[in-house]
């Protein structure tokens, strides 16, 4: 039939093709806006869901307190000992308290137990000099106290595979590494833990780690006592790679400088270091940051938040680690570098000023 019609009307085939194309164009023009609207609605629903999750709170009871020097190990449960929300190795809780002046304050602390069980959370908290929350907690927390926290949160998660696992920690950075070690051992993955500290007293969970089955534990002290029989000095990429299988995964929680050194050294060997920081090294780049009538230089500051507040911006903050969301601002123009992982919901044009540094001149909304 097509051949017969085509023989009668030579332009019919072309006209029919044009009609089909025109029909498809009209359909696309009609459907595309609908799909775009659905996409935007989906994005908004996801944003609202993340905000709702960020705002969820738990009221926990301190059921055990163990102090070690300037640190405290807290075990927390619900008042009725019911199951707690599921947590993953590497996640943290945001604790909400009041400082000595009665002002609200929140800080993030990594979970340091086997997260498979759900009847308690465990946190190791070190008293920081002039810490608004850590110092009062270490000094005064007691069994029976009530603490309000977020649900488990954070993106520093252990990938599930069978590759050998290399964990690197320094000081209180051992907390998420311990939770990851428990998970890896249960999965029968080969796991090595390199742990840097100044003295034996600074090695958290030392006795536990020495006897944890399936863990290759390698503590290193930079200022050991004369009777210390273990390794001395500092963790280096060369030391790690000399005792590591080629297909290993690397995770680290340490100071910004140590993490940066290991990241660069391992990258030169074709290795990727997964890490979490609660602070970043100061920026060496000089860019102008403006917010209303306030202007600051980015050089010498670990974040846009620090640079602006140094010149009187008074941007509110609690955690400095991307969890509380108080320092959220709208980015009007400029390019930023993400130095910490934001753990709170953000719109496409929003930034957490504690988690970014400037890569160009920036303008933020008030």
What is the number of domains?
4
Query: Using DSSP, what is the number of strands?
Result: 19
Largest sheet: 6 strands, antiparallel
Fraction of helical residues: 25-40%
Low-pLDDT residue intervals, each spanning 5 or more residues: 1-10
Strand order of the largest sheet: 4-3-6-1-2-5
Our measurement of the CA-to-CA distance between the termini, rounded to an integer number of angstroms, reads 70 Å
CATH topology of the largest domain: Rossmann fold
The CATH superfamily of the largest domain bears the name Nucleotide-binding domain of ferredoxin-NADP reductase (FNR) module
Rg (CA only)? 27 Å
List the secondary-structure elements in sequence, H or E.
HHEEEEEHEEHEHEEHEHEEEHEEEEE
Helix/sheet category: alpha/beta
Q: Give the overall shape.
A: globular
Q: Helical segment tally?
A: 8
Taken as a percent bin, the fraction of beta residues is: 25-35%
Mean pLDDT: 85
Assembly state of the chains shown: single chain
What can you tell me about this protein's structure?
The protein is an alpha/beta fold and 366 residues long. The chain has four domains: 2-54; 56-150, Elongation Factor Tu (Ef-tu), domain 3; 165-275, Nucleotide-binding domain of ferredoxin-NADP reductase (FNR) module (Rossmann fold, 3-Layer(aba) Sandwich); 288-364, Ubiquitin-like (UB roll) (Roll), CATH 3.10.20. It is 28% helix and 27% strand. The strands form four sheets. A six-stranded antiparallel sheet has the order 4-3-6-1-2-5, with helices on one face. Strands 10-9-8-7-11-12 form a six-stranded parallel sheet, with helices on both faces. The chain has a five-stranded mixed sheet with strand order 14-13-19-15-17, covered by helices on one side. The chain is globular, with a radius of gyration of 27 Å. 35% of the residues are buried. Residues 1-10 have low confidence and may be disordered.
């Amino acid at each position: 039939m097509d051949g017969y019609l085509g023989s009668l009307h030579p332009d019919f085939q072309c006209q029919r093709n044009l009609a089909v194309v025109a029909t498809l164009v009209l359909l696309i023009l009609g459907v595309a806006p609908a799909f775009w609207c659905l996409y935007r609605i989906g994005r908004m629903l996801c944003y609202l869901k993340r905000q709702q999750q960020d705002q969820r709170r738990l009221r926990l009871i301190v059921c055990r307190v163990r102090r070690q020097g300037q640190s405290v190990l807290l075990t927390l449960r619900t008042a009725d000992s019911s199951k707690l929300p599921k947590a993953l190795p590497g996640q943290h809780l945001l604790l909400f308290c009041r400082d000595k002046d009665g002002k609200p304050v929140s800080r993030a602390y990594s979970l340091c137990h086997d997260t498979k069980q759900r009847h308690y959370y465990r946190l190791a908290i070190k008293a920081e000099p002039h810490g608004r929350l850590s110092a009062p907690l270490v000094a005064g927390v007691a069994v029976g106290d009530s603490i309000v926290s977020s649900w488990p949160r954070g993106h520093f998660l252990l990938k599930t595979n069978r590759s050998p696992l290399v964990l690197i920690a320094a000081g209180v950075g051992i907390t998420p590494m311990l939770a990851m070690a428990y998970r890896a051992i249960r999965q029968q993955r080969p796991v090595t833990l390199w742990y840097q500290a100044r003295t034996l007293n600074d090695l958290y969970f030392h006795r536990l780690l020495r006897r944890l089955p399936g863990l290759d534990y390698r503590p290193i002290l930079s200022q050991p006592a004369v009777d210390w029989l273990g390794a001395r000095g500092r963790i280096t990429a060369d030391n790690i790679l000399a005792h590591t299988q080629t297909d290993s995964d690397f995770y680290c929680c340490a100071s910004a400088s140590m993490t940066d050194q290991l990241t660069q050294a391992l990258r030169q060997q074709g290795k990727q270091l997964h890490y979490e920081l609660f602070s970043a090294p100061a920026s060496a780049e000089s860019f102008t940051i403006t917010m209303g009538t306030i202007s600051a230089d980015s050089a010498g500051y670990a974040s846009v938040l620090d640079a602006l507040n140094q010149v009187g911006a008074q941007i509110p903050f609690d955690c400095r680690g991307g969890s509380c969301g108080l320092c959220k601002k709208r980015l009007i123009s400029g390019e930023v570098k993400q130095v910490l992982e934001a753990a709170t919901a953000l719109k496409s044009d929003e930034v957490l000023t504690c988690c970014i540094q400037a890569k160009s001149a920036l303008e933020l909304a008030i």
